[in-house]
Design brief:
Largest sheet: 8 strands, parallel, barrel
Number of helices: 22
Helix content: 25-40%
Shape: globular
Structural class: alpha/beta
Number of strands: 41
Strand content: 15-25%
Distance between the termini: 62 Å
Strand order of the largest sheet: 22-23-25-26-27-28-29-33
Length: about 900
Amino acid sequence: MKIKSLLTACCLALGLSACQGNVDEQNTVSVQLSPANDSAVELLAKTLQIKYQQVDNRPSAQCDPDIENGHCFKAYLHLTANSAINVDQWKIYFSQITPIQTAISDEFTIKRVNGDIHVIELKDGFTGFKAGETKTITFYAHFWSLSQSDAIPNYIVVNNNDTAKVIESTKPKIDPETGLEVLPHVMPYTDYERQFKRTANDKTQWLSAERLFERNEKYDFSAYLTSQNQVSNVIAQQIIPTPRFSEFSQTQTLDISQGLNINYSGIDKTHLSAATQRLALLGINISDDAAAIKVTLNTVTKNDEFEGSYKLAIKADEIVINAADETGIFYALQSLASLYQVNSNMLPVGEVIDAPHYQFRGVLVDVARNFRDKDFILKLLDQMAAYKLNKLHLHLGDDEGWRIEIPSLPELTDIGAKRCFDQSEQQCLMPQLGAGLDTSSAANGYYSVADYQEILKAASARHIQVIPSLDMPGHSRAAIKAMQARYNKYIKQGDKQKAEQFLLYDPLDTTVYSSVQHYNDNTINVCLDSSYAFIREVMEQVKGIHSDAQHPLTRYHIGADETAGAWVDSPACADFIKQNKLEITEASQLGSYFIERIANMLADMNIETAAWSDGLSHTNPENMPEVVQGNSWDLLMWNGHQRAHEFANRNWQVVLSSPDVLYFDFPYEADPQEHGYYWASRHINTEKIFQFMPDNLPIHAEFWLDREDNPYVADDTLKHDEQGKVVSAPLAKDKRFIGIQGQLWSENTRTNNMAEYKLFPRLLSLAQRAWHKADWAVPYDHNGFVYSQQTNRFSSALKQQRDQQWQTFAATMGLKEFPKLEMADVHYRLANAGAKIENGMLYANIAYPGLVIEYKQGSGQWQTYKQPVKVTQDVWIRSKTPSASRVSRKLKVTHR
């Protein structure tokens, strides 16, 4: 009886009022489980400890050979109860980026719900948890897991009443020193062979402190600082991005301690205010005082150069700027800011003649998967303008979110901009990508009309064009679900016509398909008139919002990518094909039909079409408008240059978006602690982007490696199929690309700091390659060639020239540009310090001069590293800003 009373007391203490116990003859307690009430869900959320452990990337015997070529990885989910759990009828929803094939447990099952959402459910054999007990679920999932950021946070425990709570142990935290998100529920990756490598043939090296030290050793930054620890003339005279021509005096400087007195010469100063505001932010006073240095701005007759060309003359007593347009004057003022060193009163005397290499110099920010607030975008626009980038591709709509207010369709943001736990998805979307339950969290949200117009006006003031994107017909789940909720609302009101006005799916469609992100319901039905009515409504609204902000919508990105297997069993499409049988004979042609129809709809609205290369590749060029922008995102290591050449040869405007080098959601370095996806590359650091030769895509096979760091071959020769049709051809002599774009996708980028960390300082190298054509770049061979590690078009002399220029570029960033990013409160990535211990001495170095290196022995105190120092045990090494406001991740150096 005492045991029963004790058990009852325990149950009550746990908030599990319904649980009861029985006592057997040996006085042991067998617990009868009872349904989890709301209090039990609360307690489970607070006390259940979950640990995610990746175990093996190559458990080949357990992988399904018919799925993803037999590639899968093994992982454990460890569930530990801090207190006894004597309830059932609860489950856990969680996000897993690749589908789980198999789960092994006597007490739990795992099944995928949709997209990345999976659910852990209790089997009949579930016996509850004793206090402190751990139960482990083994699972096998598609592909590989190579980064700790693969594990998504915010697991949700739910009972049968749909009371839902986020499990505390799975919530992300912010590291107070780095300012970056960390995932306490993820166990560290430690095994090189099984956890780090993708396959047995993977040659990728884990970037240890020792390997980083060896890589950094080839650069010597001593020449960039004087004996007084001031920057040398070489750095003082650098502009990022590099101008076409510059020449400076080695002895003369201009004292600007009294500020600058700008003579606008009839030019509208509001078009230059963003540049002068940046000068003021950096410490250059803009004044009408006669003692201030006179700056004369002139517009001159336009020539054949791209918009933004300018001449800048810094004389012994004045500054003169001549440009063909206000954009050129704006960029000249930004070059003054680039020449300026924070806390200095001098500018070098000299001349700059400059013009951009590419007319399209872009950045994509995905605000759909995880939202980035207005202030983040405004700050980014400031930095884009500072480095002469001129296109902001805002990815506003995708499966996981719709981020712009359309006043006539409030459901798009009332439902499509929020994620919470609502299985009907009539109030919000389900919490894909670990969004949690809080609809007001940073992962959720949208731009009101006023917010968006503020962004547009800020972009105009910085000579930047905003190109919005609301992906379609795939990647459209947020819109589909919002319009489904609209349909249900009006059906309840008895208004069938209004309900069906903007419906985006066929209710009778029984097609079973899976998108690349594993959704079975994310593709707009292209056979419904209501789908086109919806798109026209949205486009007219967006065009009007742009017009009211005096930022005309002249180009729109429709996405048009990754549409797989939809509509096959849609009655609406069967009827549509019958009605259009002269043009369309099967469902596989519907995707190209949609793109062609939407592109022409946009052309009728005086809007140019942009889209991703895979979708565009299926269209008939004769059915497309005259102007088409194609973002080429085909992998260079898989002959991705061929499609870029094909599109340019069609006279389409090609914007290079190559994932091998231009996807900034990928890790900087090959380290499981470095955040990001990696399906095309394990490491895209700032130097790699600097090395890019965008005018000659196949040349990279000579010095870059594939995603497993193995050599690859790039075949750029003319090829025909059996019928004699050209299947690939070199770039024609009179064709060129219009530009490049860096991509920041946001599937696992949940904070502004992490987004800025991924963008900066890579954005500076992007600007360099977009604006400046390197003199070491190998000219493209229009005759075609097969490139590999065995060919030598990129000679040793050119590589040496490139590396010398990178060294100067890196020194300029570290000594001049990083302090400016600090002043703008940009959370740029601090490079890890490299280090080694030899004969008891610690040696350390860093990729960017100006950053401080710190070390500590064991659990001791951090100390500043200035020169080789004797150590007696393992050492931790890191870098920090000179202001000591922030530090990098730390790396361990083993004492031998």
